[in-house]
Recover the amino acids of this structure.
């Protein structure tokens, strides 16, 4: 498997699976990230929290190659890497559920889930898109992992908000990732659907997949994650272990942008 | 299933009916083509629907058909290309001079390579400017439209002929002249250009529907930001689209040259509008990501039928433009209704 190969290359088995150091990113005059560090340990569920506009989405888009950092380094399993596109990130085993979902409305469910990694089959001398396999696998992933039945040949524009969110999550599971990043995956969901995604996060983690979860819900953060990294206004406030802090501590970190008294950093 | 799905789907019969209506509207061009054919056949009994006339219809649409295909591809990718007619004219004149004056005696096959290369190179210019430097496609291709139309008159103000038979073969010969084909009976008078026309639409349809590149074109046209986040190399897709558009425009120039048996300074001038109209009438969306080249072929057939039918009815050229304008307006309104209906279906 691809992931076994990736592990075999590792020089330093103790290095964090992802380590971002001193990441800076500006959009014109707007400084979105001002020297942020983020560490993701193999097998953990890490929460990334902070107010709207604090730079969470920009940080993960920089990690997966949608944006290039203005400064800073990204290491994967101890090796410094340049990630030039989401496709390259995927080759390193990183899948992303974007906050804006990144669905193409005019394409079918299956085409969206396999966008950029479309399965092909050989027909004579040409490699042809294997629509049948694509539809079947898309249907299977949605049914087994998210308990949702949709016609995968239907254009995404015909789907409800919750279904769209499920398609975007399902898409992240297509490539058997080592790391799944979810940017507010439950924001558009009903209470029932939210609990389904929580279950999914737990089962992914049980399978050894590392999860980075961006969330606004402290309930989610406390029920799902091992550690919490807090951003404030493009700066890193700090990272704490979830079971060593209270919700109030996290709120204080988000609002005041300061570490709580007595917490280890 | 154990328990209800947590993401309820609204798959009822009303939705199915709505989708059927949308599908019919997406493919509305074919009933219209059929209707136009019937009307002209009634108005021109024994003439319009003859095999010979249908052959002429296809033959005279071949060169324009390449421009329609070039424009459709650009539109599907969420861009557009105003320079297709100028590329056709410039590449045709450049290559005619290459064969006739600069390198006389050069085999016609080399000319075919040269013309496609010229078209593809100009397309590369468009693609790099638009894909990598973010230049607005309207402004970029408008500039090339003017530059290359002007460049033709710098090259030559006169028609260039004769040209090697191998060069004019695709545009001007019948399949009887294909060596080693034997006697094909009545089919031997079919122009090669018709085969080129049908083959290229078939290939384009296949590529757009059954290859990764085709899917990427639809994705970039549908939503470039999402496509990029999903890992599609959007810049490269746009460059490829314009390179292919340029090469197809050059192929149009080659077919026109064979049809006219000369490269003329006015070659493909004024063909941008009909090419655009055919694509839009065929349901290719101006906003990208929606449409099908087989329907663009229907748009081409409608435009060509109106042209030929009205000429045969003795209508003069200015009045034909008037009718074309009405047809285009009708198509625009029809697709506006379709997108409203789509919005209504979607908001339910
Ligand atoms: N593509 C972009 N262009 C310009 N500004 C952006 C872009 N993306 C994010 N920003 C700005 O960067 C800041 C951080 O945004 P974001 O990363 O989306 O925050 P969060 O996800 O924490 O809500 C905001 O001020 C936002 O307006
Ligand atoms: Mg965000």
């Amino acid at each position: 498997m691809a992931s076994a190969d990736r592990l075999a290359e590792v020089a330093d088995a103790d290095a964090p699976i992802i380590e971002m150091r001193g990441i800076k990113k500006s959009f014109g005059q707007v400084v979105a990230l001002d020297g942020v560090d983020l560490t993701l340990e193999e097998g953990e569920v890490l929460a990334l929290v902070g107010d709207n506009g604090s730079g969470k989405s920009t940080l993960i888009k920089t990690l997966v190659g949608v944006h290039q950092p203005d400064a800073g380094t990204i290491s994967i399993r101890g090796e410094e890497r340049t990630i030039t596109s989401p496709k390259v990130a995927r080759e390193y085993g990183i899948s992303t559920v974007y906050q804006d979902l990144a669905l193409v409305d005019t394409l079918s469910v299956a085409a969206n889930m396999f966008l950029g990694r479309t399965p092909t089959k050989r027909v004579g001398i040409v490699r042809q898109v294997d629509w049948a396999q694509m539809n079947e696998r898309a249907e299977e992933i949605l049914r087994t992992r998210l308990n949702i039945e949709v016609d995968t040949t239907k254009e995404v524009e015909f789907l409800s908000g919750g279904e769209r969110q499920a398609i975007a999550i399902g898409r992240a599971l297509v490539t058997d990732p080592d790391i799944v990043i979810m940017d507010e995956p439950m924001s558009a969901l009903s209470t029932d659907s939210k609990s389904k995604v929580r279950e999914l996060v737990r089962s992914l983690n049980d399978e050894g997949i590392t999860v980075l979860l961006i969330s606004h819900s402290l309930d989610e953060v406390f029920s799902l994650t091992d550690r919490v990294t807090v951003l404030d206004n493009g700066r890193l406030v700090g990272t704490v272990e979830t079971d060593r802090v209270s919700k109030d501590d996290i709120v204080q970190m988000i609002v005041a942008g300061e570490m709580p008294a007595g917490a280890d950093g | 299933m154990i328990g209800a799905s947590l993401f309820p789907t609204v798959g009822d019969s009303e939705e199915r009916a709505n989708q059927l209506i949308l599908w019919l509207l997406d493919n509305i061009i074919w009933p219209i083509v059929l209707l136009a054919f019937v009307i002209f056949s009634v108005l021109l009994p024994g003439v319009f629907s003859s095999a010979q006339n249908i052959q002429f219809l296809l033959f005279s649409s071949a060169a324009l058909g390449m421009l329609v295909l070039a424009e459709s591809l650009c539109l599907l990718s969420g861009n557009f290309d105003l320079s297709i007619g100028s590329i056709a004219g410039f590449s045709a004149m450049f290559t005619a001079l290459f064969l006739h004056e600069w390198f006389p005696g050069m085999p016609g096959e080399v000319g075919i390579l040269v013309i496609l290369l010229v078209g593809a190179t100009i397309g590369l210019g468009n693609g790099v400017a638009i894909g990598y430097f973010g230049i607005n496609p309207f402004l970029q291709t408008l500039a090339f439209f003017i530059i290359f139309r002007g460049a033709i008159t710098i090259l030559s103000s006169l028609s260039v002929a004769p040209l090697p038979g191998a060069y004019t073969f695709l545009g001007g010969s019948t399949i009887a002249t294909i060596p080693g084909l034997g006697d094909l009976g009545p089919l031997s008078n079919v122009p090669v250009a018709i085969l080129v026309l049908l083959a290229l639409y078939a290939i384009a349809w296949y590529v757009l529907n059954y290859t990764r590149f085709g899917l990427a074109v639809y994705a970039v046209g549908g939503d470039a930001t999402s496509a990029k986040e999903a890992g599609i190399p959007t810049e490269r897709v746009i460059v490829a689209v314009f390179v292919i558009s340029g090469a197809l425009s050059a192929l149009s120039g080659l077919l026109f040259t064979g049809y006219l048996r000369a490269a003329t300074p006015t070659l493909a001038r004024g063909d941008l509008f009909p090419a655009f109209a055919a694509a839009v009438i065929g349901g290719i969306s101006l906003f990208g990501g929606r449409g099908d080249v087989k329907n663009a072929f229907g748009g081409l057939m409608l435009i060509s039928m109106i042209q030929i039918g009205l000429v045969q009815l003795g209508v003069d050229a200015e009045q034909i433009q008037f009718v074309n304008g009405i047809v285009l307006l009708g198509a625009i309104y029809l697709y506006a209704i379709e997108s409203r209906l789509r919005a209504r279906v979607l908001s339910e």
